[in-house]
């Protein structure tokens, strides 16, 4: 990767990293995102990357290259506004996440890691997966006309057989079971309605 010199060490910026990954790993596609994670009494943002073969022969990977977004970590950026500091930190975290996801690294990864609080990465990864499932379930129910939060919780609790007070309490296994069962029920209902319509036409 093309290295630049800044903050006393070499690094490859995000654009150079994307160019390198696209050139050297053409068989893969990837997505990057950032999610708020609850850690103790604080909420912090984590950038991460997921990848899969372009031929879709495998599903999306678990969240890879987890990097905490740490605004204002570099003295040179102290003159920036809080939003500018956050944007700069997010760009840095996204770049390092992408490098880690594909097993690449810049000199500044270790330097960044020294500034990173030591979090429970397994817990961070678990929360990201749960948020993704919760969002997927929310979209499904809204498309089916269920938009009220309490009704959503009641429907999910009914299907999984456990009362939830928050959608984020659902486990990945329960979420997957709900999605599959809800899809099957919805498809069967649609099929019966279509059959009834054909019979009375």
What can you see in these coordinates?
With 201 residues, the protein is of the alpha+beta class. The longest helix is centred in the last third of the chain and has 29 residues, at 172-200. The strands form two sheets. A three-stranded antiparallel β-sheet has the order 3-4-5. Residues 5-11 have low confidence and may be disordered. It is globular, with a radius of gyration of 22 Å. Helices cover 51% and strands 17% of the residues. It has six helices and five strands; from the N terminus they run ββαβββααααα.
In short, what is this structure?
By secondary structure, the protein is an alpha+beta fold.
What layout of secondary structure does this protein have?
Blueprint: E1 4-6, E2 9-11, H1 14-24, E3 28-39, E4 42-53, E5 64-68, H2 82-101, H3 108-115, H4 121-143, H5 149-160, H6 172-200
Antiparallel strand pairs: 1-2, 3-4, 4-5
Helix pairs in contact: 1-2, 4-6
Question: Which characteristics define this entry?
Answer:
two-stranded antiparallel ribbon, 3-stranded antiparallel beta sheet, 201 residues, alpha+beta, 2 domains
How many individual β-strands? 5
User: What can be said about the biggest beta sheet?
Assistant: 3 strands, antiparallel
Content-based structural category: alpha+beta
Number of individual domains: 2
Which strand order does the major sheet show? 3-4-5
Distance between the termini: 65 Å
